[in-house]
Amino acid sequence: MPLRWMVWIFKGPEMDIRQEVTDRLIALIEDGSSTRDVLWDATMAAGIPCNFETKIPYSGINILTLCVQAFKLGYERNEWLTLRQANALGGWVRKGSVGTLCVFYKTRQVSDQDDPTKINNIPHIKPFTLFNVAQIEGLDVEPLVDRVPFDPIEQAEQILDASGASITWGGARAFYRPAEDRIYMPDRGRFTHASSAYAVALHELAHWTGHSSRLNRVFASKYNDQAYAFEELVAELAAAYLVNHLGLKGAKLENHASYLEHYLTIMKSDKMAIFTAARLAGQAFDLILDLTQTRELANASLEGEPA
User: Fold this and answer.
1) Which of 91, 200, 287, 295 could lock 162 by a disulfide, CB 3.0 to 4.6 Å apart?
2) Number of other residues whose CB lies within 10 A of the CB of residue 226
3) Rounded CA separation 168/143 (Å)
């Protein structure tokens, strides 16, 4: 086979992988970013990415890929493993977790068709997938120490517990991941006031109520590319209702500045939008309080108290 065809065979898959990595990076950077300096913030968020087992830093494009992913998903640690490495260490990837595509470069030695004594090194890249330690259970990872003392608020804790939502505290960002039906929250010590931590948690809990197994909020058919912003508006309103209900003084809700323009666009184009958002937020608020009351009644019954 002529050398030029060998090069073409290797080059095709390489270009596909490069395009895939490029597309994913663009999506990561653009998705929900509220800062013009997202790349700087991303690369500073959790240090240079390295392998959890070997502690060897990753290099090249993988640094940017892993840093941006860590920033977007709020990973506290920039430590990663392949599935095989995780299993070898006795760990397992949490169900619903999606790995991060990375690449490594290799060269293949191919004999020159015109000169059999000459060997040509043909460079190509191959993909591999990494998982952050936050996506892997069963690892021996030292817990992080809270940065400031955290004074729990009993009523807020009761609401979060009574909901039955799966909540993981210990990252760098707050978000709800529908694929896992799980809420991720920063370390409690990252918040200046406990009330603000609960305000953010209640915002994510409001997102949680929209899951298909609960209130099944779907806006795509009506608001198209603004569906995510509309869901954020609903969650902010529901969180505001809950914060007021609990009387969380000094609480600061998430300020989704990047969505404010979208809120205005939605409301200007549809005079019923804010009414719809308020109604849906009310449904989320009612569901969360209903779950709390149900849990309280169940606990009272177990303790032998009159329900």
Assistant:
1) 295
2) 20
3) 13
Site of tokens 């505001």: 240
Q: 19: which residues sit within 8 A by CB, 6+ positions away?
A: none
Where are the domains positioned within the chain? 3-137, 154-302
Tokens of 172: 């760098």
Tokens for 243? 């914060």
Burial class (CB in 10 A: 0-12, 13-18, 19+), 303: exposed
Q: Which helix (H) or strand (E) element contains residue 51?
A: strand 50-51
| pLDDT tens-digit series, residues 111-169 | 777 777 778 777 777 889 999 999 999 998 876 555 557 789 999 999 999 999 999 99
